[in-house]
């Protein structure tokens, strides 16, 4: 049977659906019996969904800088 | 992953307008992605040049937006332009994207390694995270400065792989190609980066501070 440490090390692969059927089954069996690992995997999923949002939106002035840079190049090339 | 798509959520009609040259939509694209793209460029060219690299990338993106085919997410498409610009910048400076210290990351180890006992069972199991919506998990105000600190202190290889895969949506194959790393190496590096984030959130959930 897998240890909790092994489950944690393979959880990324489970979420990315990269495990063989046998490996997946071994994970499922462990997860059925271990609530700590169930929680770990559930929360890892939530974390991975959160990471794309960890960089906040740009400020008005940052957006303005980019747009002005683009516009100045457009008028140059005209 | 579904939620990843939401960082660039755009229906077909909107995308069509964007490609046709709608400036206010392009400005929204900048607003949603600029900081993530800066974060992608920083570990490669450094803080001082990241701004310039991303500015140039926006210029290229603006010129090429009509050719965006929608096969990748917009952020991934933008990320690719940033990586190319960053590499060009390195070449201009006579440098190369070559992290020779990438293999020797052994000592940093796994942030969660000490949470298990000798037989590999949880010794201090994860706290129960109270999350209403997963998107907000890392966006809470009192977490922001700790998150920034953690990302700044992260080994450059972990930071790069994390930004490429988890915020920009690059495939493993593309990451291996871009960074000339083996697939297994990329996965170990990514696992370590994620474990650090996991530990940060877990500690915050348990203690209310970070
Ligand atoms: Zn377990």
UniProtKB/TrEMBL annotation, chain A:
- Which domain of life, per UniProt? Bacteria
Where are the annotated segments for Disordered? 59-78
Q: Which InterPro entries match?
A: Anti_sigma_zinc_sf (IPR041916)
Species, as recorded: Chromatocurvus halotolerans
- The protein's name is Uncharacterized protein
TrEMBL record, chain B:
Q: Which organism is it from?
A: Chromatocurvus halotolerans
A Pfam cross-reference name: Sigma70_r4_2
Tell me the first and last residues of the signal peptide. Answer: none
Gene3D superfamilies membership: 1.10.1740.10, Winged helix-like DNA-binding domain superfamily/Winged helix DNA-binding domain (1.10.10.10)
Transcription regulation as a keyword of this entry, yes or no, is: yes
The keyword Transcription is annotated on this UniProt entry: yes
What is this protein's name? Answer: RNA polymerase sigma-70 factor (ECF subfamily)
| GO MF term (any one) | DNA binding
Q: Which domain of life is it from?
A: Bacteria
Q: What's this protein's family per the entry?
A: Belongs to the sigma-70 factor family. ECF subfamily.
Q: Which GO terms describe its biological process?
A: DNA-templated transcription initiation
């Amino acid at each position: 049977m897998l240890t909790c440490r092994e489950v944690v090390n393979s959880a990324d692969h489970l979420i990315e659906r990269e495990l063989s059927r046998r490996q997946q089954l071994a994970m499922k069996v462990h997860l059925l019996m271990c609530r700590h690992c169930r929680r770990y995997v559930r929360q890892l999923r939530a974390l991975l969904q959160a990471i794309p949002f960890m960089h906040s939106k740009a400020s008005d002035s940052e957006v303005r800088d980019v747009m002005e840079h683009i516009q100045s190049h457009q008028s140059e090339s005209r | 992953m579904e939620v990843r798509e939401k960082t660039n959520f755009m229906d077909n009609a909107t995308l069509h307008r964007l490609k046709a040259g709608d400036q206010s939509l392009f400005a929204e694209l900048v607003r949603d992605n600029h900081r993530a793209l800066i974060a992608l460029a920083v570990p490669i060219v450094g803080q001082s040049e990241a701004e310039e690299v991303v500015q140039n990338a926006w210029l290229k993106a603006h010129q090429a937006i009509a050719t965006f085919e929608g096969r990748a997410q917009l952020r991934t498409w933008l990320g690719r332009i940033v990586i190319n610009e960053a590499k060009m910048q390195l070449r201009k400076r006579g440098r190369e994207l070559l992290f020779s210290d990438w293999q020797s990351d052994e000592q940093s180890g796994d942030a969660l390694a000490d949470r298990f006992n000798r037989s590999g069972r949880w010794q201090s199991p994860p706290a129960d995270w109270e999350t209403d919506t997963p998107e907000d998990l890392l966006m809470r105000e009192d977490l922001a400065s700790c998150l920034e600190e953690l990302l700044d202190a992260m080994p450059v290889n972990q930071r790069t792989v994390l930004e490429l895969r988890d915020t920009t949506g690059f495939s493993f194959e593309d990451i291996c190609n871009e960074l000339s790393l083996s697939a297994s190496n990329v996965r170990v590096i990514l696992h370590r980066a994620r474990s650090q984030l996991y530990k940060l959130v877990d500690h915050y959930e348990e203690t209310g501070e970070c």
